[in-house]
Specification:
Helices cover about 25% and strands about 20% of the residues. The chain is of the alpha+beta class.
Length: about 750
């Protein structure tokens, strides 16, 4: 074998040639003695990688796709020919085909297929034997971002999964890691990191990428491209147990949706790599890597067959698992979940049948995660469930029907990317859940990007009677935007709020009928939930919201919640993990009793002051409270930023004063109840004693608090991201070791 390393002024390329033919693109294999079954004349796999600067393309390709780049001696040219003639003959397009190699490739094609990945600043394309099987292009002339993942059937090459993870934003790496971990062994996995894919590619995702065979990803810098073609490893699937499985801990906790870690160096079942390439930036003035092209010949191997595939009654599950990927718990050969899960959840006290409408559209991964979560929740076996899909989606439909769930499909209304799609899908679902369950008086609406507490269904069963007892309650929310450990901690408590439905909510048939008349019009811009927060929709009614949420927002890069919002706002929230919570004080949520209690507590609360320092909390005396703080607010719009500054300092929801009641915000700070009263907007300002200041923050204080909370919100970021440094030695560049670590505090370290 001949290894040629060529260094030129703008790019670096590593070419691995074999005595048979330098045209053939090869990969590398942990098991050097591996041979595909029933295949002769197999070219042993070898390492092949390529990298380039911002102005050149590095490529490796099979003969059938294009002529190789460069010049070489023509085998027909004699030594006595003139120098000029021999120079012309070096042109590769003038060379005759090597018939021996052509025959070997033709024979190999019956046992292999060629995967080609092409990446540039505007698009990524994947081909299987010259047929395009995947394409994503940037919109509006901008560069595209993120990590593309395809899983192919190992014998046919058919696409079983195709997803894009926007890893140029925070939080998405968790979904990438979970998806990689959920792949069945032996699948062909194709990964393509387009420019701007690695800034927020945290360690969990890097571990999973290396588990499927990646060797260059750890040294890939920002705005560089990378591609990998490999087979998934044969490691056993080890799902992360739900946080309440061990029992005993009644304290809320942020859920861990990332897979368990393992030692990459000790794992001998790593993915088998057939091709890997990286396009790197070399020139200091370059802003983005040049296009990348990777071609790899992949052996066809039989699909994984499990013993349960031949069992009676498992045909639909087997067919599903042989068609789609990303369902390791469902498709595992060892103890897979089965349709029996539908009626396996523990029983709870059911006072009335309250159906659940699961709303979804185009993300089967989100739907599957929530479906299993819901079916394992106590009370699920006793609860009617219907799936509402915005547009026909075969994969989601088959998955739902596999577990015996009925499906209603909405004809999408609105253009792609507009809020109209969601607005009309919610209207369709709110209306039709009561059509589908004609005897139901209440229903639960559930978006697909949520994780559920183990008492999710019990929570609604315990609160349902309040919708009948008090007409001033419009709905019950399972989610709280202030479900942070710093300002919440009691899962038994609910509050009345001037709020709208959000992230898992229970409504009545009467409310659904009323809201249909005032729902946001199809042609109107804006979001359905904000529209419902108008006084025309609220009509003086309130929403019941738990202090500690029963749902956790686990989506990212969605229609409303970007990766930035997920990481900064939702990733730090807590939700209840105790399946046996008995809600307290429900009778006191009736309007007159609630207002009487609130007035009494505010009237007799202890006044506390504020240090004008965003890092300090209110100064609590050594007593249990409750406490009160009076701040300047003419309306609930918080014109002076007084509520805002306290939300920042207390590490509550920073975007807006969403959870408010008659000009008052209530927090639970370490077990001490604090009422923040906006004056003169709130009628409870009448309890402000003379001499007690109404706090009005300065602009400088607000700006200082903004900076402080930004660091708090970023605390789960990867510690740094990589940028390509100037070239010092060819060896270091070839190893992709010329790097700069950019820490988010502004520090830069040369690696």
């Amino acid at each position: 074998m001949l290894i040629i390393v060529v260094l030129v002024n703008v790019w670096v390329m590593c070419v691995v040639a074999t005595p048979i033919d330098a045209y053939v693109s090869l990969g590398h294999n942990v098991n050097r003695n591996y041979k595909p079954p029933n295949q002769s004349h197999v070219i042993s796999p070898r390492l092949s990688s390529s990298s380039s600067s911002s102005s050149s393309t590095s490529s490796s390709s099979s003969f059938s796709s294009s002529f190789p780049l460069g010049r070489t001696k023509n085998p027909l040219v004699r030594d006595h020919f003139s120098i000029k003639w021999r120079k012309i003959a070096e042109t590769r397009s003038l060379h005759p085909v090597n018939l021996t190699v052509l025959e070997i490739n033709r024979e190999a094609s019956t046992h292999t297929f060629v995967i080609r990945v092409e990446i540039d600043s505007r698009a990524v394309e994947v081909y299987r034997d010259e047929e395009m099987i995947y394409q994503k292009r940037a919109h509006n002339g901008s560069t595209h971002s993120g990590m593309h993942l395809l899983a192919l059937d190992s014998s046919s090459g058919l696409v079983m999964l195709a997803r894009l993870f926007l890893t140029h934003q925070p939080s998405e790496y968790r979904n990438l890691a979970a998806c990689l971990h959920s792949l069945m062994p032996g699948r062909v996995v194709v990964l393509a990191a387009v420019p701007d894919a690695t800034v927020f590619l945290a360690q969990d995702a890097i571990d999973e990428l290396e588990a499927v065979g990646a060797t260059l990803i750890r040294n890939l810098a920002a705005y560089e491209a990378w591609a990998l073609v490999s087979h998934t490893p044969s490691r056993p699937y080890t799902p992360t147990p739900p946080p309440w499985a061990s029992g005993g801990d009644l304290k809320p906790a942020t859920p861990d949706i990332t897979p368990p870690k393992y030692n990459i160096e000790q794992d001998l079942t790593r993915g088998r790599t057939w091709g890997e390439a990286a396009s790197i930036i070399r020139r200091p003035d370059a802003k983005i890597a040049s296009p990348l092209r990777l071609s790899a010949r992949v052996p066809k191997i039989p699909d994984v067959l499990c013993e349960w595939h031949d069992e009676a009654g498992m045909e639909k599950q087997r067919d599903f698992c042989q068609t789609y990927e990303g369902y390791a718990r469902l498709c595992s050969c060892t103890n897979p979940i089965t349709p029996a899960l539908r009626y396996s959840a523990p029983m709870i006290t059911i006072k009335e049948a309250i159906p659940v409408a699961m709303l979804t559209a185009i993300k089967p991964f989100n739907f599957y995660r929530q479906l299993i979560n819901l079916l394992e929740t106590p009370g699920a076996a006793q609860t009617p469930i219907v799936v509402m899909i915005d547009g026909p989606h075969t994969e989601i439909t088959r998955l739902a029907q596999l577990f015996g769930l009925d499906v209603l499909v909405h004809r999408p209304q609105g253009e792609k990317g507009t809020t109209t799609l969601l607005n009309m899908h919610f209207r369709f679902s709110v209306h039709n859940v009561f059509n589908y369950f004609p005897d139901a008086d209440k229903a639960i609406i559930l978006e697909d990007d949520l994780l559920l507490s183990p008492d999710f269904l019990s929570f609604f069963q315990q609160t349902a009677w309040l919708l009948d007892a008090d007409p001033t309650i419009s709905c019950v929310n399972a989610f709280s935007v202030n479900s942070y450990a710093s300002v919440a901690g009691d899962p038994t408590t609910l509050r009345r709020l001037e709020m709208y439905p959000q992230f898992g909510w229970m409504i009545t048939r009467k409310w659904a009928q009323e809201m249909f008349e005032v729902w946001i019009p199809e042609k109107e811009g804006g979001d359905w939930d904000w529209w419902l927060s108008s006084e025309n929709s609220l009509q003086g009614r309130h929403v019941l919201v738990p202090e500690v949420g029963r749902t956790y927002h686990a989506g990212a890069a969605g229609a409303h919640v970007t990766g930035w919002m997920q990481e900064h706002l939702f990733a730090h929230m807590i939700y209840n993990i105790d399946p046996n919570v008995k809600l307290q004080g429900l009778e006191e949520l009736i309007l007159d009793r609630y207002e009487a209690k609130m007035e009494h507590e505010i009237q007799h609360a202890t006044d506390v002051g504020m240090r004008y320092d965003p890092k300090s909390l209110p100064l609590f005396p050594p007593q249990p409270g409750p406490f009160r703080i009076f701040v300047r607010s003419d309306t609930r719009s918080d014109e002076y930023g007084a509520f805002y500054i306290l939300r920042l300092c207390l590490h509550a929801f920073s975007e807006d004063t969403r959870e408010i009641y008659r000009g008052v915000v209530r927090f639970n700070v370490g077990g001490r109840i604090v009422y923040i009263v906006g004056c003169p907007a709130s009628p409870y300002c009448k309890f402000r004693p003379q001499g007690i200041a109404v706090h009005v923050p300065s602009r400088a204080l607000i700006e200082s608090a903004d900076r402080h909370v930004s660091w708090w919100q970023m605390r789960h970021y990867p510690p740094y991201y990589l940028q390509r440094a100037s070239v010092r030695t060819p060896e270091k560049e070839f190893a992709m070791g010329n790097l700069l670590r950019h820490y988010f505090n502004g520090t830069v370290i040369v690696v």
